[in-house]
Predict the structure.
Amino acid sequence: MSDLTQRDLAPASLRVRPARSLYAGNARAVMFRGWRATRSTNWLVMVSGFFEPIFYLLAMGIGLGTLVGDVSTEGGQVVPYAAFIAPALLAVAAMNGAIYDSTWNVFFKMQFARLYEGMLSTSLGPLDVALGEIMLALLRGALYAVGFQIVMQALGLNLSWWALLALPAVLLIAFGFASVGMAITSYMKTFQQMDWISFVMLPMFLFSATFYPITVYPQWLQYVIQALPLWHGVELVRGLTTGAVDWGMLWHVLYYAVMIAIGLVFTTKRLRALFLD
């Protein structure tokens, strides 16, 4: 009895939650659960997401590219049109995969399946749930990126050995979008609110120097585009695949590092407020 503390003798309802209630170090359990569910029910959606950027590449890069010819990157490097849009489509594929898993999937699990409420009633903490769902989005983004890079290599669109670093760059992009996407989704209550995500994603996809150089826009609009997260991802991957690597690319990396930090903080706080407080 002398070894028992006052906390050990206190009623369970009065005990203070342990410090690990925020993070139990078991995010992989959340990820594995999500992967098994996706593999058994949503595999067709994953396959369609893999082929979508390939169809864009074949239609725009190979088809339209025969009419466009060569284009200049922001750094002044002249490359074939297919080699110009291929890295942009790689960044878009990472964004789309991460956004789908961290928004619509999370919205269903939170509002209808009530999965997170059950998870947080165990030893798992809100940071475990956030990291687990983000890791699931990263896994999906990695599958898309590897497959698309194989296609790029087969078509001769990787113009530099720096393209080997495009995979970790794509994972960074997916991590940033997944973190922010899950944070935003935690505040959504209805399907109508979720439609705003698509409303934002479509113009970002079209205007982030994906299909043509940013210099075609007026200067004031260039500043707006350069504030968008996808533009930073497109420039980062394009620089690696074309070999236009310089110290300025660290600015793009820093942008996504800040995205990740903000997303994780807001997601963790929101899940804790919803299910633990």
Remarks:
- The chain has twelve helices and two strands.
- The two ends are 33 Å apart (CA to CA).
- Residues 122 and 198 are 34 Å apart (CA to CA).
